[in-house]
UniProtKB/TrEMBL annotation:
Residues 81-250, 252-560 form the Bicarbonate transporter-like transmembrane domain. This is Bicarbonate transporter-like transmembrane domain-containing protein. Residues 1-26 are annotated as: Disordered. GO terms for biological process: monoatomic anion transport; monoatomic ion homeostasis. GO terms for cellular component: fungal-type vacuole; plasma membrane. GO terms for molecular function: borate efflux transmembrane transporter activity; solute:inorganic anion antiporter activity. It comes from Diplocarpon rosae. It holds the Pfam family HCO3_cotransp. InterPro entries: HCO3_transpt-like_TM_dom, HCO3_transpt_euk. Keywords: Membrane, Transmembrane, Transmembrane helix. Its main location: membrane.
Length: 592
């Protein structure tokens, strides 16, 4: 069947038909029984039913495929170049000045909170990257990237609530690309990575120009998002084990045992303090709030100082490797700049492949972070957008490649935590009609909202960037790697604790009589259990891939699951509790 014509196209075809008939009426009619008006209607009907390929009016070159493609680029269509970018530029102009007018105590407290939740995971990944990338990337590179990209986004992005940093999935990807460079490609890691990030930069530009948000995010469902979140948790736990394994190989057995104690102690204390808000009536609520928000920082500071007390000070310990000057981690490098043009030409083109994989990972990760930190429950009111930030992300990604530092992108869970820390009760005046008198009255309505501003992301990013200075690098260098392992465990637990897969997994182990009531239209729990089992199995498969030579391709596997939730529609409808009408429609489609 040929695609239906829209109103504009149909009116144009009708006009063409009428003009064609008027020209034909000048020629003699043999039988004379058919009047010109009848001919016009017949041709119009023939045009609508038969399409442009067989029409005597529309040119033969206008095939249905060409018509469909042309419609996709019409004004307002999904692929119309720069459509979302123009809209985002208008939105930035509307909100930019007001974003700088708001600053108060809660904004400052949020900046301090996000500073700790951002820099601590960052230096944890730095410790792992230093070992797994042959000292090409270390603490100073991760701190430099997080601070620089954070400042750029706080100044120029359309979604200032989004927090940027070096992520776990990218660390895994970079480590495996380094392995391939050393064992298979036999090329320098930094030039290859620089070109990969440059290619990723212009690919981000294409996604922004052609409005990728409109035609890709409709396929991003909770199925793939939950898998991505669970994969993050598994990666965190795996990194903690790797950190302790390296510690075991480099220190005495007594020191290793204390490292295990330090890691578990850091983890358990952070978990305990993170629940301080539920300790009521113990302590004042502000004390409970402070203990909860700075749980990880308090735990880390305590276990950094503990090994220097008493007999523990005699134990040898592995600490975070830092620089004593503003200098790259690799002694062979003098400046933060990569001579990317020295890479052989064939590898410049081949680096498009890892560049595309990085683009897929960053685009998905950043879009999800931006969406989650601006959910309706946060009460965001200012105009936002996505295309402009994707283009800005492409700029920072290419810049990081040229500087020889790991690129930063939207962070989970730091981005939504930023929004949570800015929540407050706002009072709005609204006009309502009194049910008693029928008169219109002005009343105040309380609503939870976030402070939409740029000061908190700017301050936290600037604070992180300051840590590239030698004195503060020395402070970071006091951190034992066992504490970083404990922080990895804490990050994994915090991510796993809010993942719905965990709760549905517990439901699989619970007797049916003890389970909560089923959503409307769902007959039993087997559909939900099957849906959960598929998610867990796929997470295991993807994690296994990260341990093999095919590890750089793991983001592609995640993207391949886009829309899977729709294919397993019955399971998801059962999970979401959709009404019986939609359930019957799914059954008619054969999704049983």
């Amino acid at each position: 069947m040929l695609p239906a014509l829209d109103d504009t196209t149909r009116s144009g075809v009708a006009d063409e038909s009428e003009r064609g008939v008027e020209e034909d009426t000048t020629e003699p009619v043999i039988h004379g029984e058919i009047n010109p008006r009848q001919i016009t209607m017949l041709e119009k009907k023939f045009q609508e039913n038969s399409g442009a390929t067989c029409s005597s009016v529309t040119p033969h070159s206008e095939t249905p495929l060409k018509q469909t493609i042309k419609r996709q680029f019409n004004p307002g269509a999904k692929l119309r170049p720069f459509r979302l970018l123009r809209q985002d530029v208008r939105n930035i102009r509307k909100r930019y000045v007001s974003d700088w007018r708001l600053f108060n105590q809660l904004v400052f407290a949020s900046a301090v909170y996000v500073f700790f939740t951002n820099i601590l995971p960052g230096i944890t990944f730095a410790s792992d990257l230093y070992v797994r990338t042959g000292r090409n990337w270390g603490t100073i590179e991760v701190v430099f990237s997080t601070g620089l990209c954070g400042i750029i986004f706080s100044l120029f992005s359309i979604q200032p609530l989004t927090i940027l940093g070096v992520t776990g999935p990218f660390s895994v990807l970079a480590e495996n690309i380094y392995e391939l460079c050393e064992s298979s490609f036999h090329v320098d890691f930094l030039p290859l990575m620089a070109w990969s990030l440059i290619h990723a930069g212009w690919m981000h530009y294409l996604l922004a120009v052609f409005n990728a948000h409109d035609w890709t995010m409709q396929y991003v469902t909770t199925f793939s998002a939950d898998i991505f979140s669970l994969l993050n948790s598994v990666i965190y736990f795996h990194k903690a084990i790797q950190e302790l394994q390296r510690n075991h190989a480099q220190v005495s057995f007594a020191s290793f045992l204390y490292s295990v104690i330090g890691a578990i102690g850091t983890f358990l204390l952070a978990v305990a303090l993170s629940t301080a808000n539920s300790w009521k009536p113990l302590f004042h609520r502000y004390i409970r709030m402070g203990l909860s928000e700075y749980a990880a920082a308090i735990s880390i500071i305590l276990f950094i100082g503990l090994p220097h007390i008493g007999e523990l000070a005699t134990l040898d310990k592995q600490t975070l490797v830092v620089q004593t000057s503003f200098h790259p981690s690799d002694p062979a490098r003098n400046v933060f700049f990569v001579k990317f043009w020295e890479l052989p030409v064939q590898w410049i083109f081949l680096s498009i492949i890892p560049g595309a994989i990085i683009t897929v990972l960053f685009y998905f990760d950043h879009e999800i972070s931006s969406i989650i930190c601006t959910l309706p429950r946060y009460g965001t009111a200012k105009p936002g957008g996505f295309a402009w930030d994707i283009m800005l992300l492409g700029t920072t990604t290419a810049l990081c490649g040229i500087l020889g530092i790991p690129p930063a992108n939207g962070l989970l869970p730091q981005a939504p935590l930023h929004s949570e820390s800015l929540l407050h009760i706002a009072r709005h005046k609204v006009i309502v009609t009194s049910p008693e008198t029928g008169e219109r009255e002005v009343t105040c309505v309380e609503k939870q909202q976030v402070y939409e501003q740029r000061w908190s992301p700017l301050l936290q990013a600037a604070g992180i960037l300051i840590f590239v200075s030698p004195p503060l690098q020395h402070v970071l260098g006091l951190t034992p790697t066992s504490v970083l392992a404990g922080l990895f465990l804490f990050m994994g637990e915090q991510s796993l604790a809010v993942n719905p897969i965990l709760f549905r997994f517990f439901h699989m182990l619970t007797p049916p009589s003890e389970l909560p009531a089923l959503p409307k239209g769902v007959r039993d729990h087997w559909g939900i259990h099957g849906y959960t089992a598929v998610q867990i199995i796929m997470t295991g498969v993807i994690f296994y891939v990260t341990l093999t030579v095919a590890a750089p391709a793991f983001p592609v596997i995640i993207i391949a699951h886009f829309g899977t939730e729709r294919r397993y529609g019955l399971w998801m409808r059962g999970l979401a509790g959709k009404d019986a009408r939609k359930m019957r429609r799914i059954k008619r489609l054969g999704l049983k």
